[in-house]
Amino acid sequence: MKKKEMVAMLLAGGQGSRLGALTKRNAKPAVAFGGKYRIIDFPLSNCTNSGIDTVGILTQYKPLILNSYVGNGNAWDLDNPDGGLHILPPYFTEGGGKWYLGTADAIYRNMDFLERYDPEYVLILSADQLYKMDYSAMLAFHKEKKAELTVAVIEVPMEDASRFGIMSVDSTMRITKFTEKPKKPDSNLASMGIYIFNWPVLKRSLTTDHKDPESNKDFGGDVIPKMLEKGKPLYAYTFEGYWQDVGTIDSYYSTQMDLLNIDPEFNIFEDRMRIYSNSNMSTAHYIGNKARVGSSLICNGCTVLGTVRHSILSTDVYVGDGAIVEDSIILPGARIEEDARVSKAIVGEESVISAGTTFAGGGDTPIALLGDGIVYKDEQGV
User: Tag placement on the chain: N or C end, fewer CB within 10 Å?
Assistant: First the structure.
């Protein structure tokens, strides 16, 4: 097997329970976004744009749609014989098996995969964040600093810092302190959950962490703090672009609605650092002669016979005659039947809004629909 400079590992097993209806049947990284995309398109495209040709996707929760979607990685040019894209689910060994216990445990249990390529560096990513990033620039920084671990950080408002893992650094960007969700943060450099490890260092750290019965098997809570305690050279790499973790219905909705601005802060359609998708198989969309469409994204395979205003229609959506869709996000394959009305809502994949029914979110809060008009609420009451 050809030795690699850097292999990427995408943590894609999270349930995403705060997204309520959208993850009842689907893993969070496979949730549709921006019409023809899914959330996992963003880190996969970043890998392609950064020249990384070997990627492992660690799956766990409801992986069927995710596995089917990524396929052999061809859509992201990750189907090469010397690396490519690999699905890595939890598996049983002679000693038994169980779900991943944490982010560090997930990587530990896939070290055999990394050994095949014996990389110099391992890039660890969350598969459920929205951003465009050149990982090769982060790797250059890692090499320059002679770091054993580099953590990507982003500046957040000081009043929001207590929601994140916060890094304190010296004048050279060497990490001097890491605190998970501090009540009184002394820095606003938030960890993005993006790490570059030297492979021998990662191997030793994960093996030590695995043997520790007190560990929660987590990078942020266990591995990184222990490396800091030992005085290892850990550095923070500052990312200055757009970054969003769409972890709630509200953030998922508002981030997509921002795409409809004339000059969106996060432009996913520009050629620079292009975002690739595996949703290119549908036929052209059809707009009926009585249809009315304004300020909306309409993807391939859609049939629009009614009215669509300020909304995003993913692939293969049907909007019937007399139906009205406004301020809403309709996910792939959903049907809004004749004379139905959907306002400020997120309609799940393959869902059906029956003829003549009305669903509308209230105030600033959208509702999420799944199935035949079933409304789901998350733990925040959304």
Answer: N
